[in-house]
Specification:
Layout lengths: L5 E5 L6 H12 L2 E4 H14 L7 H10 L2 E6 L2 E6 L2 E2 L7 H10 L3 H15 L4 E5 L2 H5 L5 E6 L2 H14 L6 H17 L12 E4 L5 H21 L1
Parallel strand pairs: 1-6, 1-7, 2-6, 7-8
Antiparallel strand pairs: 3-4, 4-5
Helix pairs in contact: 1-9, 2-4, 3-5, 4-8, 7-8
The structure holds 2'-deoxycytidine-5'-monophosphate.
2'-deoxycytidine-5'-monophosphate binds next to α2, α4 and α8.
Length: about 230
């Protein structure tokens, strides 16, 4: 019987993490945990309460008073903020930018990491984010780090926003992606970084299916090592 693994998928925005972790989780019959959605939901709560992203005390209070959860309806995953479905509201460019600021706060990261560990403690989970392989689950059995050029990632985000009916332009989306990269890579606490033992996959020239095949092959290899060992 296969062990229920913890699989981490980290990387910058627009690299394909969400799509791939969803498909990977479906393929393996695992739970999928989109940790970016948790930071986004908290940023939305901060926006509504008009809390400044530098106000540590207010953000800490907000974390304690906020319940973020997920609901699975068929194939779709909904993000709930204190029971309210905010799945669409957390994806606007404005909330995306605010999320990068809110996610740099120490109290916010502590609260989110604690919740992520609780949600994934049983194993059999694919978690996607920025610090999953380095901070949240440094002992995860499978760690993937996805990369792609900012042009490719910006274009993917642009098409995604268009498909959601949001007004945007390509150049602006690429520069937003680059601004968020800078914030994610350079923040003091839990910056976006590849874990030493993560496998790097460049998705610039790969289709989703091809990338998924790479990851599945790696998971299979890990499973047989664990069974033999
Ligand atoms: O993956 P995403 O674009 O939904 O993430 C939204 C923001 O949250 C992004 O700026 C990075 C941040 N984030 C983080 O700091 N740590 C995570 N584990 C996941 C997301």
């Amino acid at each position: 019987m296969n062990k229920k693994l913890i699989i981490t998928i980290d990387g910058p925005s627009g690299v394909g993490k969400s799509t791939l972790s969803k498909l990977l989780a479906q393929e393996l019959g695992y739970l999928n945990l989109d940790t970016g959605a948790m930071y986004r939901a908290l940023a939305l709560a901060a926006f509504r309460a008009q809390i400044d992203s530098q106000d540590d005390t207010a953000l800490e209070k907000l974390c304690n008073a906020t319940h973020i959860s997920f609901e699975h309806i068929g194939d779709t995953e909904r993000v709930l903020l204190n029971g309210e479905d905010v799945s669409e509201l957390i994806r606007t460019p404005q909330i995306s930018m605010l999320t990068a600021e809110v996610a740099a706060n120490r109290a916010v990261r502590q609260a989110m990491v604690k919740r992520q560990r609780e949600l994934a403690v049983e194993g059999g989970v694919v978690l996607e984010g920025r610090d999953i392989g380095t901070v949240v689950f440094p002992h995860a059995e499978v760690k993937i780090f996805l990369v792609a050029s900012s042009e490719v990632r910006g274009r993917r985000r642009f098409l995604e926003l268009q498909a959601r009916g949001m007004e945007t332009d390509l150049a602006r989306t690429v520069s937003d992606v680059e601004a968020r990269d800078l914030a994610d890579y350079s923040r003091d606490i839990s910056p976006l970084r590849k874990a030493d033992d993560a496998v790097v996959i460049d998705t610039s020239e790969l289709s989703i299916r091809e990338t998924l095949e790479h990851i599945l092959a790696f998971v299979e290899q890990k499973q047989s090592q664990l069974t033999e060992g």
